[in-house]
Amino acid sequence: MDLGISGKQAIVCGASQGLGLACARALVQEGVNLTVIARTPGPLQEAVDRLNLLSGATITAVVGDITTDEGRDAVLEACPEPDILINNAGGPPPGDFRDWRQKEWFDAVNSNMYSAIDMIRRTLDGMAERGFGRIVNITSTAVKSPMPGLGLSNGARAGLSGWVAGVAREKVRDNVTINNLLPGLFTTARGHGYLAYRAAQEGVSAEAYEQQFYVSSPAGRMGEPAEFGATCAFLCSAMNGYMTGQNILLDGGVYSGTY
Fold first, then answer.
1. Range of the domain at 29
2. pTM to 2 decimal places
């Protein structure tokens, strides 16, 4: 399927690994020109080298922290008129809410709520003026079903979803959509790390806990990043002009609710 976005300009945040890289890979295979940002130069350059093998599209790397004003300034200087924006920042560490104080909460809200809001603030109106925009926020299945030990993420990401529900309707008539992608557990460092954390809490080995997850999961496995990237690419496609403000859950059926 031709997604109709070849030649478009995209910013992909947190693109050096994991689900951010998977989204970058899916977009570049559609001929989208990328501006990718991540904090660590080495892994980011390795990601760019791999992406360059997939397409003749232009790929620009920006070393920076998207959760800071300086990082957002830098990526928008490199790509001032994006057609596509993939908001993505690493989740806060797991733990016990009794140990968290104002700093931990403010850091989580800044990383997983405010930074995405500020990127949308800086790009939304320009997309509307140009008549095309696709914004995808990578959040978490925790928005639908809070995950034990991830209270910081549960709270901050749910806050972003609530805010998006309001703003996503403002520019859809100008062909700008905003949607959230909610990953469950994928074969990434974050996914395996969370299972290892839960294993430690339960006092069992990481391997045993992971096998227990496979048995309990309807899909019987973790998700593959390529599956996530493909879904992201569709949400960014020219055909996706009529879906906005939605939370798209990719968790292999773990969440059993109707809504």
1. 9-185+224-250
2. 0.94
